[in-house]
């Protein structure tokens, strides 16, 4: 495959996965296409690109072009590839300065997010088409993942990159100078001595913040098979979001008939490769459920002196327990005693008429701080906020 055809294929892939609502999402899609073409676009570079483009003006194509060139390219070799992808992505046959990001490019990059029947045909006004496609993306965000077709799941996968990830914070023992807080007597005294004993301005200090560990326990048993792929994709997004902020404090495990650590498998930057690696790591995919036993293994090995102590532990499961429910309740109580906060994510929680009457769920609820839904991308967005506030 030649380089040009490879880039064109990359652009097509990005175009078919492009969410459409705002100019920022279009620019974000461009970074995806650029990354697929081989340019090392990190999360920080993409964020810098969005900020630079916003400062220059999102409707100014020339400014956006130069903003991307300055922030996304890391070597001379990247410049040529950047121009090729830029040309293909925005279809700038007449030059970047002659078209604006707010019209034709958005139509081109989002044309595949809706079926042809929903686009209204070529004679419709461009604005109506964009609004219709944006509405379809919003509808897709709220759809139950278990009811999606393969094509809809593929389009939804591209939207995971829009999830905002923030890790919970905890107070550190270290202190640093600050505008207010606790009086720093030493610094105040030293400042006074430098003035030959004359009174100086008061100095203050405060405790610093550091990320709190997050542990994700994903049920991959048969009853969760419809959601397992999306949940692992979410775990990958949370882990990569943490890495983008300079921390690796996110651990992921699979729960089934046994416990499997997936942190290393999900460390790959590309989500597709990460999910393939995770699938090859888990030996009991779509098998039975022994939540009580696997939680006991987790707590015995990574409990009081390990990862779970002081962490935010998120359990993704429908609570269908085939083992001893009393054991599950005991282990959840152990987990609740050592963790900072326990969040239980149930895909059925957000469905109309759901009642937590299953034996497993009734056993764990007394030891759960937050019982939230996990059946759609919108529910995942709410979950990331719950984790950030924990």
From TrEMBL:
Residues 211-382 form the VWFA domain. Residues 102-115 have a biased composition (Low complexity). InterPro entries: UCP010256, Uncharacterised_CoxE, VWF_A, vWFA_dom_sf. It comes from the Bacteria. Residues 96-127 are annotated as: Disordered. PANTHER family: BLL5662 PROTEIN, BLL5662 PROTEIN-RELATED. This is VWA domain-containing protein. It comes from Cryptosporangium minutisporangium.
């Amino acid at each position: 495959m030649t380089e040009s055809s490879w880039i064109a294929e990359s652009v097509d892939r990005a175009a078919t996965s492009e969410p459409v609502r705002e100019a920022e999402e279009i620019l974000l899609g461009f970074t995806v296409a650029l990354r697929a073409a081989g340019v090392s676009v990190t999360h920080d570079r993409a964020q810098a690109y969005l900020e630079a483009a916003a400062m220059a003006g999102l409707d100014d194509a020339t400014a956006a072009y130069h903003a991307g060139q300055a922030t996304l390219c890391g070597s001379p070799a990247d410049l040529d590839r950047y121009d090729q992808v830029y040309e293909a992505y925005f279809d700038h046959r007449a030059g970047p300065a002659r078209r604006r990001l707010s019209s034709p490019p958005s139509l081109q990059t989002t044309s595949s997010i809706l079926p042809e029947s929903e686009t209204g045909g070529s004679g419709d006004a461009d604005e109506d088409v964009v609004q219709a496609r944006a509405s379809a993306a919003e509808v897709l965000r709220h759809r139950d993942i278990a009811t999606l077709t393969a094509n809809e799941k593929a389009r939804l996968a591209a939207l995971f990159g829009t999830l905002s990830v923030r890790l919970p914070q905890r107070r550190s023992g270290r202190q640093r100078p600050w505008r207010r807080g606790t009086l720093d007597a030493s610094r105040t005294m030293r400042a006074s001595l430098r003035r030959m004993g004359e009174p100086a301005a008061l100095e203050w200090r405060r405790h610093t913040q550091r990320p709190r560990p997050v542990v994700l326990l994903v049920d991959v048993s048969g009853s969760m098979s419809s959601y397992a792929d999306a949940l692992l994709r979410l775990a990958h997004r949370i882990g990569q979001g943490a890495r983008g902020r300079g921390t690796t404090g996110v651990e992921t495990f699979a729960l089934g008939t046994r416990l499997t650590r997936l942190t290393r498998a999900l460390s790959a930057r590309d989500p597709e490769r990460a999910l393939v690696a995770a699938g090859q790591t888990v030996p009991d995919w779509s098998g039975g459920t022994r939540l009580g036993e696997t939680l006991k293994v987790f707590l015995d090995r990574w409990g009081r002196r390990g990862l779970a102590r002081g962490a935010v532990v998120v359990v993704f499961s429908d609570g269908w327990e085939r083992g001893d429910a009393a054991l599950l309740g005991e282990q959840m109580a152990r987990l609740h005693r050592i963790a900072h906060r326990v969040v239980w994510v149930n895909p059925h929680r957000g469905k109309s008429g759901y009642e937590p009457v299953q034996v497993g769920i009734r056993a764990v609820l007394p030891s759960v701080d937050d019982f939230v839904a996990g059946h759609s991308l919108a529910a995942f967005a709410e979950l990331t906020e719950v984790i950030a506030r924990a």
